[in-house]
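Hi all, posting the design record for the shared folder.

TITLE: backbone redesign
STEP: 1 of 1
STRUCTURE INPUT:
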């Protein structure tokens, strides 16, 4: 359909449609197709002021799906994104790349900086902010487990928290757990309280 111009109007491809096509290709694990699509159609992204940002972000998404995490960090650290939600998604992807690369010091620093960034945002919807903070807490907790206990491996952690086919009800196991991060880590941490 794309070759016939089905999604095109006057030789332009809306940025949102470009993002969606790449996302679907990655989701379906059609990585070769997604790479082809990015290379063949990036020049037609419209509006033009979003072209390079949309191209770079989606290229980073493809590299992440391919497991090329160093390329992900190269793009995300070199390019300054302007779109508000792309900035959030790029930061999240960068943190996940640090995790995959076992760059725990960079990850911890990045998680702390992202938490401060989120707390300073006044126009971020409350549910999105809550989701981002939950992501920080989860990734930070996994990072501490892997970084602090060398006997644990990613596979061990994945087996312990594999919830495939299960339901997750946060707070239903012990609704009085208090994760004391940040600020009161001398009392408790995500790691110590999750073990409880």
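Okay, here is what came back for every position:
SEQUENCE:
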């Amino acid at each position: 359909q794309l070759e016939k111009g089905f999604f095109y109007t006057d030789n332009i491809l809306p940025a949102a449609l470009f993002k969606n096509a790449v996302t679907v290709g990655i989701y379906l694990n059609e990585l070769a197709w997604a790479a082809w699509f990015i290379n063949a159609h990036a020049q037609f992204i419209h509006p033009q002021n979003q072209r390079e940002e949309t191209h770079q972000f989606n290229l980073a998404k493809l590299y992440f799906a391919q497991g090329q995490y160093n390329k992900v960090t190269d793009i995300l650290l070199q390019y300054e994104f302007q779109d508000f939600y792309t900035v959030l998604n790029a930061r999240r992807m960068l943190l996940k790349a640090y995790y995959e690369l076992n760059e725990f010091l960079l990850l911890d620093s990045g998680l702390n900086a992202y938490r401060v960034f989120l707390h300073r945002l006044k126009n971020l919807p409350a549910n999105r902010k809550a989701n981002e903070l939950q992501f920080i807490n989860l990734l930070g907790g996994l990072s501490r487990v892997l970084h602090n206990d060398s006997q644990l491996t990613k596979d061990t952690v994945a087996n312990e928290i594999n919830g495939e086919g299960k339901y997750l009800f946060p707070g239903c196991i012990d609704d009085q757990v208090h994760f004391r991060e940040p600020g009161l880590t001398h009392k408790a941490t995500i790691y110590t309280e999750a073990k409880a």
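COMMENT: Strands lie at 13-14, 45-46.
Let me know if anyone wants the other runs.
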